[in-house]
């Protein structure tokens, strides 16, 4: 095998994301083996040129690099533990969503068994794979990242964060947090709008472009947090950000204010500590315990 | 005065937003009078051609249409109540942030005093006024909206929602809710990332494009909510959306999980009611009390 032959990879786990990852490797000529615990998920991939392994042992033996895209941390162990001996000398790139601690545990598990390990956090939904906007964070073995990057970049923009395997899942969770809170906030807004007969779709038509337009504001909050001067000019003050109107309007619309109350609590802690004139980003201090 | 002469307007309140609104009217030739409770805010506007009134009575008397862009509902009354007689026969367009109930109160206050009333909710930060992405919602008098729309559209995309004056502020709050929860979620993520030495700015560089890319997903949630079939295919299930990993990783990073716990509570209510296989948008049902 020369350096010019595309790397062979195995993808374990053919949920929507696993199928998208495998599908992206094939057009680039990577010999791709796929496997799933339950059968019937590989049909489209076989048509596109993938080899479907019938056993996990066969799947692992087929490629020097094994991608795990499974349900959770426990399922990674369920699938890999029985084939530990086959994995020795090979590389595991685990893109299953896990906590930082779980990724560190897997990295150590791999190290003591002679398996090279890279952790990946996929910042994309399956439909976004290989398309603009797809970002995948990696941490763990820099050597693995450098060696496999030509394949990894087929999935999206690839970023290596450092040797601590927990870094990618930590940043993954840190970036998914505002996504989940935004989505939940939208459904809160939809419940408010419904009280006046405005449909969720009508609200989405107004909200989606607005949310896209304000998302880059996180850069400004970040600058203030990193700079540490919460009184820097040009910020919306915590006093002005008081969400009492939101809570009152939610109650009036029979909407549970639990979510907006959580933000209000973070704001009030700083206002009550005398920082009401400081910018909104000061709620960072309400969130940090140490 | 013919129909072809630009409408004269008065802007009361010269905070950042009020100044942006007045500044946008001048290049289009609208005779623009400005006034602020405390002096010294009008200098740039005077240079650009605005007339600065020295009393509120002069300000109101100068134009058939008076824009109020003040701190809150109470300050609208503080400013307008003393000049009620001068306002009779004129039009008030109130873009001050208020609750739906407060806007309805102002509409009724205006109606009984012979004042035409339109309520506006500005979905933009001051820098966005007159630029792409600026959206302003209106409700109340359709006649006022039709008559003033050529001026209103100078500030951004203008949308009239209906005769109930509370509609614009309701949709305003409904759209700002996911903005605030997203911003708070980002600061939560920044606190998590800091625990591993990742700066808020580095996190923002990864998070901002991602959040912009996922914002249009609110259309899909809205379709499911409006359709009422939370089991429709193609959705991420509530079970898979369980945020236990987020809570555990937040605790491990010494970050108060109050915000992510609020979303988790909304998810768990539905899972515990037996709807774990349904899509994430089902948390809408956790939010509605009636």
Write the layout of secondary structure elements.
Two copies of one chain form a homodimer.
Chain A: E1 9-12, H1 16-25, E2 32-35, H2 43-47, E3 51-52, H3 56-61, E4 65-68, H4 73-80, H5 84-87, E5 91-94, H6 100-111, E6 116-123, E7 135-140, H7 142-152, E8 157-160, H8 167-194, H9 200-214, H10 218-227, H11 244-252, H12 258-275, H13 283-287
Parallel strand pairs in A: 1-2, 1-4, 2-3, 4-5, 5-6, 7-8
Antiparallel strand pairs in A: 6-7
Helix pairs in contact in A: 8-9
Offer a quick outline of the entry.
The structure is a homodimer of 290-residue chains. Chain A is an alpha/beta fold.
Summed over residues and divided by their number, the pLDDT of chain A gives a mean of: 95
Determine the fraction of residues in helical runs of chain A and give it as a percent range. 40-55%
| CATH homology superfamily of the largest domain in chain A | NAD(P)-binding Rossmann-like Domain
CATH architecture of the largest domain in chain A: 3-Layer(aba) Sandwich
Total number of distinct structural domains of chain A = 2
Instruction: Please describe the biggest sheet of chain A, giving its number of strands, its sense, and whether it closes into a barrel.
Output: 8 strands, mixed
Distance between the termini of chain A: 53 Å
């Amino acid at each position: 095998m020369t350096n010019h032959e595309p790397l062979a990879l195995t993808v374990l786990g053919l949920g929507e994301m696993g199928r998208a990852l495998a599908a992206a490797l094939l057009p680039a000529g990577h010999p791709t083996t796929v496997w799933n615990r339950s059968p019937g998920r590989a049909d489209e991939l076989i048509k596109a040129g993938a080899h479907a392994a019938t056993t996990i042992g066969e799947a692992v033996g087929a490629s020097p690099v094994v991608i795990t895209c499974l349900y959770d941390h426990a399922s990674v162990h369920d699938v890999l533990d029985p084939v530990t001996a086959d994995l020795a000398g090979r590389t595991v790139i685990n893109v299953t969503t896990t906590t930082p601690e779980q990724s560190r545990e897997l990295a150590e598990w791999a190290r003591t068994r002679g398996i090279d390990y890279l952790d990946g956090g996929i910042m994309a939904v399956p439909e976004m794979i290989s398309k603009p906007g797809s970002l995948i964070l990696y941490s763990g073995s820099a050597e693995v990242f450098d060696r496999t990057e030509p394949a990894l970049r087929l999935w999206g923009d690839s970023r290596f964060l450092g040797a601590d395997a927990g870094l990618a899942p930590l940043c993954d969770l840190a970036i998914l947090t505002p996504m989940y809170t935004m989505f939940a906030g939208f459904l809160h807004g939809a419940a408010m709008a419904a009280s006046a007969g405005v449909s969720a779709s009508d609200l989405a038509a107004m909200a989606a472009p607005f949310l896209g337009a304000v998302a880059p504001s996180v850069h400004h909050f970040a600058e203030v947090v990193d700079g540490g001067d919460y009184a820097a000019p040009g910020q919306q003050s915590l006093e002005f950000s008081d969400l009492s109107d939101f809570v009152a309007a939610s109650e009036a619309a029979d909407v549970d204010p639990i979510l907006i109350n959580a933000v209000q609590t973070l704001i009030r802690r700083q206002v009550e500590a005398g920082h009401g004139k400081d910018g909104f980003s000061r709620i960072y201090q309400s969130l940090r315990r140490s």
